[in-house]
Amino acid sequence: MQYSISCDFWNNLLVKPAVEGTLNVLRAAKDCGVKRVVLTSSSSAIAPNPHWPVDAVLTEESWADADTFKKHDVCHYY
């Protein structure tokens, strides 16, 4: 037996809050004069990276270090 959940269910549960939250962040950033926002799929995409100083500002160049994840067998990151 297969079960089906309507697309509206997933849109209301996941997509709509994600879009609204992202728009809220972008509007707030604009209101505060932020010049650039980097949107990633997850905070895991940009941190931790042992090659970056602790006080570094994270940018589009701040990608997580896949070799570190592999070394520590964190397989869901790569």
TrEMBL record:
Q: Which GO biological-process labels does this protein carry?
A: steroid biosynthetic process
Give UniProt keywords alphabetically: Oxidoreductase
Q: Which Pfam families match?
A: 3Beta_HSD (PF01073)
Which SUPFAM superfamilies does the protein's record reference?
NAD(P)-binding Rossmann-fold domains (SSF51735)
Would you indicate the residue range of the signal peptide?
Answer: none
Q: Cite the InterPro entries for this sequence.
A: 3Beta_OHSteriod_DH/Estase (IPR002225), NAD(P)-bd_dom_sf (IPR036291), NAD(P)_dehydrat-like (IPR050425)
User: Which Gene Ontology molecular function entries are recorded, alphabetically?
Assistant: oxidoreductase activity, acting on the CH-OH group of donors, NAD or NADP as acceptor
> Superkingdom of this entry's organism?
Eukaryota
Q: Where is the 3-beta hydroxysteroid dehydrogenase/isomerase domain?
A: 14-64
Q: Which PANTHER family match?
A: NAD DEPENDENT EPIMERASE/DEHYDRATASE, OS01G0828100 PROTEIN
- UniProt protein name: Anthocyanidin reductase
Supply the source organism for this entry.
Answer: Carex littledalei
